[in-house]
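Quick start: read one record
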Amino acid sequence: MSGPVASEEGQQTKRILGIFPNFRAVSANVHLPPQSVKEKFITATHDSFDYSSLFIPAFVAGINQATNSVPEFHQGAAGYGRYFWHTFVDQTSENYLVEFIVPTITREDTRYYTLGSGGFIKRAEYSLSRVVITRNDAGHNTFNISEIVGAGAAAGISNFYYPQSQRTFSNTASRWGTSVGIDAGTFLLHEFWPDINHKFFHGKQPSQ
């Protein structure tokens, strides 16, 4: 469902650069009804299995292989494949926990509400704060249990499929922090994408 038409300022598109999903981003000054359980499930599924969902795991897997973060995976194409599928499963489980399972239990809204106005620092602080502050289904600000607990639970679950050497507290905490950090960066991109789109693409990016 859609709310009132947003002004050009803070106007989101459904994809960033016509490629990356931007379905969770709500344009500035748009008011939506409470997010349904079905909508939370669909959003998590889009973020997990959209064709572009391969890009971040591919990038992170490359970094992890280059730094030999899991020696048991070895190098070469086979090693990269191991890094990739582990990272893809990390991302998928985190998406479903953060965007569907936990927010359904806690009745939190997983959408990103664009601030769209104010200086760069104000908007950057707002976007990064969304990892710890979100809206509940009643529209009030609340602690972002979905993000913090959901990402932590996904990191804990990852111990079932990572080698024994990676199941330490520090490694689990590192995976937890990486997930939260990626989400924080995503929120920052959500906030400033309308400005980038307007400046470089004149707001003409495809909506689908």
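The radius of gyration is 18 Å.
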